[in-house]
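Priority: medium. Attachment 1 of 2:
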């Protein structure tokens, strides 16, 4: 259960940390709402990193906690850690990418890891039936 709790907390830190970064960027640029639709704009990249993280973090945390209650096999615990790492990689890849208009390798690895680990966690939960 400890791995599930730590990974859930790390996802929460990522969501709230990115939210704070968006708020600070809005204050700095004096943009109270929205963002310039320029894929090179730093605020645009932060908003997308926060939005994308928010879309996945809650479901992953639920999966982590549910799977953890079912005496998970080691691969499921590794999937929790992999999913958490992947979410950090994806957010980092979005932020450091010169433009969101083109793929970035770190972003790709983060997205692929999220899908693979997320589906593995779904399988671990179904295995518990």
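Attachment 2 of 2:
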């Amino acid at each position: 259960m400890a791995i599930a709790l730590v990974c859930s907390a790390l996802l929460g830190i990522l969501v709230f940390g990115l939210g704070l970064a968006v708020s600070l960027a809005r204050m700095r640029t004096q943009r109270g709402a929205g963002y310039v639709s320029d894929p090179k704009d730093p605020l645009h990249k932060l908003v997308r990193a926060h939005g994308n993280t928010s879309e996945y973090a809650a479901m992953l945390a639920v999966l982590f906690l549910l799977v953890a209650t079912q005496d998970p096999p080691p691969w499921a615990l590794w999937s929790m850690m992999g999913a958490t790492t992947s979410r950090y990689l994806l957010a980092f890849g979005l932020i450091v990418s010169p433009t969101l208009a083109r793929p970035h390798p770190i972003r790709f690895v983060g997205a692929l890891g999220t899908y693979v680990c997320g589906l593995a966690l779904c399988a671990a939960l179904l295995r518990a039936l």
